[in-house]
Amino acid sequence: MNFKPRIATAAIALALLSGAAMAQDTPQPAAQPGTQTGDSRDLKVQQKKGTTTVTIPRSYAVVIGISAYKNLPETAQLAYPNRDAEDVYAALISPEGGQFPAENVHKLINERATVANIRHEIEEWLPQVTQDNDRVLIYYAGHGFVSGGKGWLAPYDVDIHNIPTTAYPMDSLGSYVGGKIKGKWKVLITDSCHSGAITPETDRKQVNDTLLDLQKSLFSLTASRDREQSFESDKWGGGHGIFTYYVVKGLEGEADTNGDGIVDADELAEYVHTNVRLATGGAQNPTSERGSFDPNMVLAYNASRIKGPALLAPQYGNLIIEANMDNTEVFVDGKSAGVVNKGTALRLPGISPGAHTVKGVHMGYEPDGPREEQVYPGQDTTVSVRILIARRANHAAVEELDKGIEYYNNGGAENYKKAADHFQAAIKLDPKYSMALLYLGRVQNALFEDDKALASLKQAIELDPDYEEARASYAAALLDAGDLDEAVRQLNVVTRREPERGMAWYLLSQAYARKADYADGKTAAEKAIALTPKNAEAHFWLAECLRQLKDPAAAMTEYQNYLALSNFDTGKAGQLNYYLAGFLFGMGKKSRATQSDIWKELRGQANLGLCDSEWMQKQFDPAITYCQTALNYMPNDLFANYRLGVIYSEKFNQQQQLGLLAEAKLRFEAVIAANPDTNEADRSRKYVKNIDSVLAQVK
Fold this sequence. Notes:
This protein is of the alpha+beta class. Helices cover 45% and strands 16% of the residues. Helix 16 packs antiparallel against helix 17 (552-565).
């Protein structure tokens, strides 16, 4: 067998005056149109046949993958668990897969998968957010071992000399999943690989038995049984644990053997068991407990795959993709299957028999396909992708593009309109000119023509699916339109294909922050800053996430970094035009009409963040100064007025100066005038009532 055993992985408001408590809400990040929360209702999808409604419950997941361990020797490091976890995450949030809201899937990869973070997600977050009718999934890929007769999961910072405090006990996992985490459908997917034990006591059978004991009242799928090893190889989709490769393919729809568009627990278990057993010659047998879970459990749903019942359960085949050019992206049935290089085939096992479309793309070239290829049961189907014809833009079209970019670089609405005319002329001369479509989409976004911008950018991607700059700009336009979920999905594609693209990480940090997923937003912003340290807005969104994560001191540093990096004369068009660097593209529309207003608003929001951070640390005087500065930029901002009112009220409680109450009342009245229907306005009315009561007593 051309694969190797994986090393021991186991899946898995101060009181004011009278003492009445007032909520002290921290202002949320700026620009939040379209924000979705975990309290959204169940998703109901009508099947094409018109006979069945598929109801997908509100869903939560924790996805953990650890390849690189902080304290383990080189021989104990793993190859693919981080990549496995990334692919599971992508399958779960896909609208043609798990259909989990992105903000409800918390991802811990490598250094983020500390014992503290794992405990938080399993013992605090999931028990707090889940309800009885929810769907809950936990995926773990990393070391599993036995010590002291107990099974343990190995976090990133595990220390084999201090296991009780640095490892996570499997019996705790079972206790929380079985009792404290609520949900009608609970799923535990454990990629268990038990060769190369990291402690002398580790026994593969003991680890597997411990995992299998966690199965009561949930669907648990483990990578192997008894004393078996499980394997990983670069021959499965370019590099995966073999078990997880088939889990992902199954969730993407290959496990839907009856053609109803649904992947249920039995189908996934059967698909994964059959294919892993065949792939390893019987050396590895995934295990699930039959009968302990709801047979109607929906793990994934894709209406486009509805075909009607199959006559026989299929025996799966394999696609072997070859290419004549490096970095050729392959699409199977319209979905990216990976990148293939010249001389190195991409092997895609576990494909259902029958006709499939295959397409190879390389930016700047005419695609090969899509063309139909037959996959036969139990056989390899080799497909040669030939990228041959370079697309050369019409010379006149190139000239129009260059003229348009000149106007584009000058900034301003009138210049954008002139630029759009030239870009449209270029496209008319060359309808396949994806770069002209990219720039047209950008100026349309600048002119607040959301629908047109989305259409242009989407067309650029359709022409060149591997045009990651266009995909990132499309995601930015989605952020402006308020479609945060689709923006996350698009940016997840970009960051996986081109992890060095700083703009994509910055936009992803913004998307996560606006979805209130501050931990992932922090990680994405830190990656953006590492790649593009002078991207001011990456510092801004990092600060927003740190503030929401209750780290005000660190947040203040990042707000100051943003203010320093964005401190320029907005009248200079070359500096004002953030667009070219992609910095303000995707900031959300709100009420602004010019990029100068965007700059002012962000600086106002940064000063508000500094105010709030100082308030969190009870530093009232500097907090007041920052809030007043914020109001200079945003005179009618509700949050700035509310926070300033709270600060004056709290300062009165310390100093008993009536003038502070008068200032507080003015700020609360400004909140009510700005928007009387908000929670802040409701609290402000209560503050005003208490202030009036105190002032009346003084008189």
